[in-house]
Specification:
about 400 residues; alpha+beta; Glucose Permease (Domain IIA); 8-stranded antiparallel sheet; 3-stranded antiparallel sheet; 3 helices; rod-shaped
Length: about 400
């Protein structure tokens, strides 16, 4: 009888121990599952960030090739520019030579025109004197001669006068012909000079256009390279921040699970049949927009990377309201997000409000839907005042429009 009782006691004790072990094993399985889920989510986000970084690196490599291509084009443009500048220099030298030719031709024209003026004046004076003496001058001179010798002498003198006039006339005609020819030379040389000047102007305009194009192309290539370097540096920094944040989340998840496991074990030890009621941080109702402001950037790919939220443009100091009731689980600085508030709405849904100028609530605060939690600013990586709103489910960013209906205003 005593043996049977002892067996029953031991059997009951073993059954009790077995129940406790099953509870603890179940809790351990739950703990491992929770930690595994947290790690899987963290690893997924880290993988997404690395994929985005790899895309940026690929784009950066393509941009480097593009820069090399543009630099080669710039080198070709420089060669073309130097060739044209050499032509311009040759044309400029030819223009100077042509100016000398034109000046010589104009000087020669002035000389022959001066000779023409002298001969015309002399011839005009001679003709005027002959007309003053009358038309019968020659015959009267011959009739008034007293002897044959005198007649012969006067005849010879008259012939010399007439011969001299003929020579002067021929010289005058020759000079006038030379003047006309020289004028034609001057006109031709002047036209040639003008053509060379026009060619020079065209070449100079082409040189200037090439210089501007080269400068613009070089500036564009440098700007593109700078932008890609900034994008790459920003994403690398974000990846480091995200990796650190994931590590902290994993550690926090492990600590929380360990604390829950120990608490469950203590409760199980003191009240084996009691069941803990699950806590809830969620609110009731739907989700509301955090402010009345225009959406300046949607969720999705942007600039070769993933934009994981919605941007609403508003002046610095504009109030930011909770999109749903919940608990503030973080309010502080987080890398490129600047000053950010995280609100846990329960069921794994967390909303994030980034780039704030200042906070209205702190970590641990319970907030109602529509309650002011902070104010718009430009902290972190931003080019202007706006609110960056994210919604995360189980740590994964999802489009906030899945929860927000309609438009902000």
């Amino acid at each position: 009888m005593e043996v049977d009782v002892l067996i029953d006691v031991r059997t009951g004790w073993l059954l009790g121990v077995g129940v406790v072990l099953l509870v603890l094993v179940g809790s351990g399985i739950g703990l491992l599952a929770g930690v595994a889920d947290a790690q899987t989510q963290a690893e997924r986000e880290l993988s997404d960030a690395r994929e985005a970084l790899e895309r940026i690196r690929t784009e950066a490599a393509e941009a480097d090739r593009e820069v090399s291509t543009r630099e080669a084009a710039l080198a070709d443009a420089q060669d073309r520019l130097e060739a044209i500048e050499a032509i311009v220099n040759d044309v400029a030298a030819e223009v100077e030579r042509q100016r000398v030719v034109v000046r010589d031709a104009q000087r020669r024209l002035a000389e022959v025109e001066q000779d023409q003026a002298v001969l015309e004046a002399a011839f005009t004076d001679r003709v005027a004197r002959l007309f003053k003496q009358g038309p019968d001058l020659t015959f009267e001179a011959l009739l008034n001669a007293q002897a044959a010798d005198e007649v012969i002498a006067r005849t010879e003198l008259l012939e010399r006068v007439l011969t001299g006039d003929q020579v002067d006339i021929e010289r005058l005609v020759a000079v006038e012909t030379a003047v006309l020819a020289q004028r034609a030379i001057v006109v031709a040389e002047q036209q040639r000079l003008e053509a060379q000047l026009a060619e020079q102007e065209e070449l100079l305009a082409e040189v200037e256009q090439l210089r501007r194009s080269r400068a613009l192309a070089a500036a564009d290539a440098r700007q593109r390279a700078r932008e890609l370097r900034v994008q790459r540096d920003d994403l690398e920094a974000e990846e480091e921040e995200l990796a650190a944040l994931v590590e902290r989340q994993q550690a926090a998840a492990r600590r929380a699970e360990e604390e829950r496991r120990q608490a469950a074990a203590r409760r199980q030890a003191s009240q084996p049949s009691a069941a803990a009621a699950p806590a809830s941080t969620g609110g009731t109702g739907g989700y509301a927009w955090p402010m009345c402001a225009p959406v300046t950037s949607e969720y999705g790919p942007r600039w070769g990377r993933m934009h994981r939220g919605i941007d609403l443009g508003a002046p610095t100091g504009t109030p930011i309201r909770a999109i749903r009731a919940g608990t503030v689980i973080f309010a502080g600085w987080q890398g490129g997000y600047g000053q950010i508030t995280l609100v846990d709405h329960g069921n794994g849904v967390v909303s994030a409000y980034a780039h704030q100028s200042r906070f209205a609530v702190g970590q641990g605060a319970r907030v109602a839907q529509g309650q002011v939690i902070g104010y718009v600013g430009t902290t972190g990586n931003t080019t202007g005042a706006h609110l960056h709103l994210e919604t995360r489910v189980g740590g994964t960013a999802v489009n906030p429009r899945q929860y927000l209906s309609g438009s902000p205003c």
